[in-house]
Design a protein that fits this description.
This protein is of the alpha/beta class. The protein contains 10 helices and 14 strands. The chain has 3 domains: 150 residues, D-Maltodextrin-Binding Protein, domain 2 (3-Layer(aba) Sandwich); 107 residues, 3-Layer(aba) Sandwich (D-Maltodextrin-Binding Protein, domain 2), CATH 3.40.190.10; 84 residues, Double Stranded RNA Binding Domain (2-Layer Sandwich), CATH 3.30.160. The N terminus is likely disordered.
Length: 360
């Protein structure tokens, strides 16, 4: 069951007086602090788009507990994978209790419920992974005096020294993904890695209590939570390739059969205008690569796409076959003057070709 966890918010009025149209959007979200903040960001973004069109938009956050939030004592691959974080939200949508749902794009499985579509992907946040160290003075502060504390967008001058300090703690790095696990093994050989579940704040509490030497998280998530002080060592994509969709938010909505009513059509129009085309193309390429691998949440793989100065999309992929070191490859897709459908087809074909190369 869902529970409406916040009153309508996000209404805006034009300086010229009352607006001609009004719409309430019910936004489904998981109940964690990060998920609710991400849903609020989307609601505020849609309200801004609506305001520019002379529409008063209010939004209501509908908190929903998913199976993935309830089952925390086992790795995701043992209990059903990434779909555990979205099924309840899909159900609430198909039953008409919410209009849209907001997800971390990296948590969406590549195959969605056939009744559901990705309706918008706003401009992406910081895609990079970050190593988070314990707070100084806490029970887990054994490596808090590493040479590069605090936020660092520059590559560390000495990963080997950081690795040695991590090894000296005798504690593992808390890591929730196969992708990070194989890349941490290359960056910090000899440092154990252990599974960790729970929301961001829960993981930080475990770290600071001395259960782990460090954690790996996503920069964008910590920024959205106002926790940039916890960014200890940021990894550039060439050091740790992100997951497909990492740093991006995805807004899902129902697929429409026939002509939607006025309210639904209005929401769809606002979602279309809220969508960031470049981020959408990059995420399309990344998800196509993951799909072509036949990957699930237990597959050590990553994908990162970005636009070049010429307007092309450069896609880098990573895949680690069982018992083997990670394999990386790149491809560049020219999109000059391509329509949306043609661009999607080119990106999908290039991503599939890259996946085939890494699988060979």
């Amino acid at each position: 069951m869902s529970g409406r966890s916040a009153p309508p918010c996000g209404a805006f009025l034009s300086k010229g007086g009352p607006m001609a149209e009004r719409v309430l959007v019910r936004i489904g979200t998981r109940r964690s602090v990060l998920a609710r903040e991400q849903a609020r960001i989307v609601g505020a973004g849609l309200a801004a788009v609506a305001r520019a069109e002379g529409i008063e938009l209010t939004f209501e956050l509908v908190g929903i507990t998913t199976a993935g939030d309830r089952i925390l004592d086992r790795p995701l691959e043992q209990i059903g994978g990434k779909g555990l974080f979205i099924r309840e939200l899909d159900s609430e949508m198909t039953e008409g209790r919410i209009d849209i749902a907001v997800h971390s794009c990296k948590d969406l499985p590549v195959e969605l419920d056939p009744r559901v579509r990705i309706a918008a992907i706003p401009a992406r946040g910081d895609v990079r992974d970050v190593l988070v160290l314990p707070v100084p003075g806490g029970e887990g502060a054994a490596v808090a005096d590493v040479p590069t504390p605090g936020r660092s967008a520059e590559p560390c001058s000495d990963l080997a020294e950081l690795g040695a300090r991590l090894v000296a703690t005798g504690l593992p790095i808390g890591c929730s993904s196969a992708r990070r696990r194989v890349q941490l093994g290359e960056l910090f050989p000899g440092v154990p890695v252990a599974s960790i579940r729970g929301n961001v704040n829960t993981r930080l509490e475990k770290l600071d209590a001395g259960s782990y030497a460090a954690l790996t998280l996503v920069v964008a998530g910590l920024e959205r939570l106002g926790l940039t002080s916890r960014l200890s060592r940021v990894f550039e994509p060439h050091e740790m390739l992100p997951a497909a969709g990492q740093g991006a938010l995805a807004v899902t909505a129902l697929r429409r059969g026939g002509t939607p009513d006025g309210r639904v059509a209005l929401i769809d129009r606002l979602l279309e205008r809220y969508h960031d085309v470049q981020t959408g193309l990059c995420v399309t390429a990344e998800r196509a690569f993951t799909r072509a691998l036949g990957a699930d949440c237990a597959t050590p793989c990553g994908a990162y796409a970005c636009a070049t100065d010429s307007g092309a999309i450069e896609l880098e992929g990573l895949f680690a076959p069982p018992g083997c070191a990670p394999r990386r490859g790149k491809t560049v897709v020219e999109l000059a003057d391509a329509s949306a459908d043609v661009a999607t087809a080119r990106l999908t074909a290039a991503a599939s070709s890259l996946a085939e190369r890494l699988l060979a």
